[in-house]
TrEMBL record:
Organism: Rhizobium esperanzae
GO molecular function (one): inositol 2-dehydrogenase (NAD+) activity
Residue ranges constituting the GFO/IDH/MocA-like oxidoreductase domain according to the UniProt record: 130-244
Any single Pfam family the record assigns to this protein: GFO_IDH_MocA
Listed Gene3D superfamilies: Dihydrodipicolinate Reductase, domain 2, NAD(P)-binding Rossmann-like Domain
GO terms for biological process, alphabetical: inositol catabolic process
Entries under InterPro entries matching the protein: Gfo-Idh-MocA_inositol_DH (IPR050424), Gfo/Idh/MocA-like_OxRdtase_N (IPR000683), GFO_IDH_MocA-like_dom (IPR055170), MI/DCI_dehydrogenase (IPR023794), NAD(P)-bd_dom_sf (IPR036291)
PANTHER family: INOSITOL 2-DEHYDROGENASE, PTHR43593
Family in the record: Belongs to the Gfo/Idh/MocA family.
Record flagged with keyword Acetylation: no
Matches recorded under SUPFAM superfamilies: Glyceraldehyde-3-phosphate dehydrogenase-like, C-terminal domain, NAD(P)-binding Rossmann-fold domains
Protein name: Inositol 2-dehydrogenase
Highest taxon, organism lineage: Bacteria
Amino acid sequence: MTLQVGVIGTGMIGRDHIRRLTNVVSGVEIVGVTDIDQARAAAAAPAGAEVFATPSALISSEKVEAVIICSWGPAHEEQLLACIASGKPVFCEKPLVTSESAALRVMEAEVACGRRLIQVGFMRRFDSDYRRLKAVIDGGKLGAPLMFHSVHRNASVPEGLYTSEMPLNDTLVHDADISRWLLSDEVIGVEVRAPRRSSRGGALRDPVFVLLHMASGALVDVEISVNIAYGYDIRGEVSCEAGVAALPNRPATVISDSNGIRQAIPEDWRERFIDAYDQEFREWIVAASNGTASGPSTWDGYAATLVADAALRAVVSGGFEPVNMIAKPNLYGRPAAMAAE
Ligand code: NAD
Ligand code: ISE
């Protein structure tokens, strides 16, 4: 059986996902695409796919069984609510939405529907290095995790697309989610400190340090640099009671020449997480073909949104900003269920 999907948003990641769904993973066919830039949608449409005039036309089309949202974050709420109203499984790129109130509206609609329909694009959970790191921590031989150092560096970001707070309201959600998942914990508060700005970052608050206070008492420090020029560099190290576990250096050919000995660094997220994106879609296709969703949920998207909101408040207050979550609806499993999700 082949899952017939429609893709909303045919920008950078929309096109990359269209490539993988067309050429890499199986069990899926793209039958429709749409974008507010219709020419871009037409150029990205695989052979035989219809170019829909609007997201709502795509979502309500009978030929579309499941939806992939790759539009900008502020557009996600309306598109997610339309998918839930149609009862169609949906993969939504991060961020789930861009405010706490929007996250609550989406969660309320999904809970009322009675089954999970949404998987959020937190692809790090599907990366084999992160999965092995989590297995070591969950194995317990190193004792309880005490600190997690998360480094999130981008070579550059597209000009003009983002506000000055992009590192906090767009990029940080990945670190918030992976911290909750790796440590099987929740964020209860956030602090933010900024060093001198990078001259390469323009108006962006870049770089920035974020401190996540976890419910267990563990602390997570996050370095976000979004214009660091040399490449896309993701690092992570967890200090536990009786040892330390870290992501490996990425395997890459070692080049020795008159400039020295070196290994290439990925250019961007497409290259670094290529296998993780493939795997997140393999798992999504299985769940969506059964009319539901697995993996990172609306609850996880809500949690990451609250962390981003608290970080933005912490910039203004200069102090600790609490993260207060509602009680977890049964639909999203028991409170400490993240290890299995
Ligand atoms: P982009 O600007 O390259 O593409 C977004 C596309 O969506 C554009 O073509 C735009 O015209 C279209 N669009 C925006 N609003 C729309 C609407 N209301 N209806 C229809 N089309 C609409 O941006 P991008 O880098 O591809 O990012 C898209 C989303 O994916 C963002 O939410 C971003 O945070 C996320 N993203 C995730 C990852 C990841 O690693 N998981 C990486 C990059 C981007
Ligand atoms: C981008 O939207 C992503 O999600 C990437 O994974 C992240 O590293 C980058 O900072 C974001 O802009």
